[in-house]
Amino acid sequence: MSNMSKIKPRKTIFDVSDVPVFWNNGDQVLTRFFDALSVHFPDGERFFIQSVRNYQDKVTDPKLKEDVRSFFRQEAQHGIVHDRYNAVMQAQGIHVENVISNLKIFIRLSQQHLSPKYQLALTAAFEHITATLGEGFMEGNGDMFRNAHPVMRAMFMWHGVEEVEHKAVAFDVYEEAAGGGYFTRVSALIVGTILVHAIVGVALWQMLKVDRLHRRPVLITKGLNRLYGPKGMLTRLLPAYLAWFRPGFHPCDTGIPEKVQAWLVEYDRHEDPMEASRVVFGESKLDHVA
Ligand SMILES: [Fe+2]
Ligand SMILES: [Fe+2]
Hints:
By secondary structure, the chain is an all-alpha fold. The protein has one domain. 64% of the residues lie in helices and 0% in strands. Helix 2 (41-53) runs antiparallel to helix 3 (62-91), helix 3 (62-91) packs across helix 8 (169-177) and helix 7 (150-165) crosses helix 13. The radius of gyration is 18 Å and the shape is globular. The chain binds fe (ii) ion (2 copies). Residues 45, 75, 78, 130, 159, 163 line the site of one fe (ii) ion.
């Protein structure tokens, strides 16, 4: 059962019109990795919503019922915001429809052939991945996005925070309305992780081709090393990711990280995600402490 506070949908919009192509610290591979991930968000999030919606009527707990509705609204807004950025990538010469076609095939096949329970288990597993990433965005020195373009950084922070905020919803629906079960959710994370890498990997390659960087093995290896190397940004998230395999695991075990909490407090003051992001990165002062 979720023990976290109220989930708040936020109608946030970002002006992505001036975002440079390599918006993440000028780092081509890091930028395109996050582009290749986020290009799939709108369709992925619609799949998450549908998977949870299949069980919405079976949810009896009033708090969870309300959380489910907030989860739908948050994910829908993520889709709207990332669709806007997808249009920017399209203008850069990336054929978005083409890039996301693999995910669309997977979703169609899943909805045709997998049980609603397994679709929900996959959704809970993907949500574990997005929440782990969301917590990772801000952890340590926040070097995944520290020197990124401020609009993109604020966009990923907002999305990351909301992923942390609603990290238990799909999990709780899976446990309480779909019967739950350890082996199903564990297999879902394994399948989901392989799938994310296959789909994002192909998309990353397609994008690097558009950028004419695909024949630069040193550049690509160095970039991947920053993510997956021994001190890589994603490697550091491995313990949080692996927590899922503990039989008694619950997403709320880790609570809400301090910087996520700071973002939430700051956002509540003025509803400005740009300023909230600056505060989290120590570029603005928390001046409301009287
Ligand atoms: Fe999302
Ligand atoms: Fe989510």
